[in-house]
Amino acid sequence: MTDPLDRIAAALERLAPAPAPAPDFMAEAFVWHTQPDRLEPVAHVSRVDLSLLVGVNRSRDTLLDNTRHFAAGLSANNALLWGARGMGKSSLVKAVHAQVRAEGHDLKIVELSREDLPSVQRLLAHLRAAPYRFVLFCDDLSFSHDDQHYKSLKAVLDGGIEGRPENVLFYATSNRRHLMPRDMIENERSTAINPGEAVEEKVSLSDRFGLWLGFHPCSQDDYLEMIRGYCTAHGVKVPDDRLHAEAIEWQATRGGRSGRVAWQFFCDLAAREGVRIRL
């Protein structure tokens, strides 16, 4: 029969598990998980080369310079990449990280999901104590009605008595510039006793990002240039007239152009040409 004290100890262990061991930061990329808290190393980061991102030159250069400054120990701004779907916001973050590492900086990247924002203080405690510099990356960040996760995000940006750790920089992508749906903001404004104060807390969240980088729908020329770049990088040889005709037909069936649509067309084209894509 199990000793009662052993059962009590086991129950307490389940209620308050021992602190997770300090992470091993030998990898270049990690994903933060909870239950239990842990930083899971990523063996292979899914990304494209920076040179293949077309039509985002200004955003590319701005984010690259900002990341270089941070990796070199200089001051840098948190960045919000917002705008049209499929235009390479998350691809740019990962490509810039790879470029800065290729220049000799041991910069790490940690992906944090929006659902795990309430645990961010525990994550920051791990990162603050590590002898490395980290880009903390949250993809597709947005908040809906009655969503309180945004309050946790303020600690990452500049809130709290400790502030953001000196060795952590926060990059987020979103389809919304203010991270909240417009109808939600308007509803807050119309029903509040003091409309300005009711909206201020939620709208001011995006103001805490030092960089706002906008992404807009691409032109047909940019769309075709993206596909040509993929063909060159992966050794797919197709006559220009055929490439243009098939690419335009593909975008017509998708109802629009974007970097994502260009990549999806290229994947289909490479498969039909019998070329294995090397990611």
Strand-residue proportion: 5-15%
Q: What does the largest sheet look like?
A: 7 strands, mixed
Question: What integer is the average pLDDT?
Answer: 84
Radius of gyration: 22 Å
Level-1 CATH class name of the largest domain? Alpha Beta
C-alpha termini separation:
56 Å
Q: List segments where confidence is low: pLDDT < 50 over at least 5 consecutive residues.
A: none
Detailed description of the structure:
The chain has 279 residues and is an alpha/beta fold. The chain folds into 2 domains: 29-215, P-loop containing nucleotide triphosphate hydrolases (Rossmann fold, 3-Layer(aba) Sandwich), CATH 3.40.50; 220-272. The chain contains 10 helices and 7 strands. It has a 7-stranded mixed sheet with strand order 2-1-4-5-6-3-7. Helix 2 packs across helix 3, helix 8 (220-234) packs across helix 9 (240-254) and helix 9 packs across helix 10. It is globular and about 75 Å long. The mean pLDDT is 84.
List the helices and strands and how they pair.
Layout: H1 4-15, E1 29-33, E2 38-41, H2 57-71, E3 79-83, H3 89-102, E4 107-111, H4 120-128, E5 133-138, H5 149-157, E6 168-174, H6 182-191, H7 195-207, E7 211-215, H8 220-234, H9 240-254, H10 259-272
Parallel strand pairs: 1-4, 3-6, 3-7, 4-5, 5-6
Antiparallel strand pairs: 1-2
Helix pairs in contact: 2-3, 6-7, 8-9, 8-10, 9-10
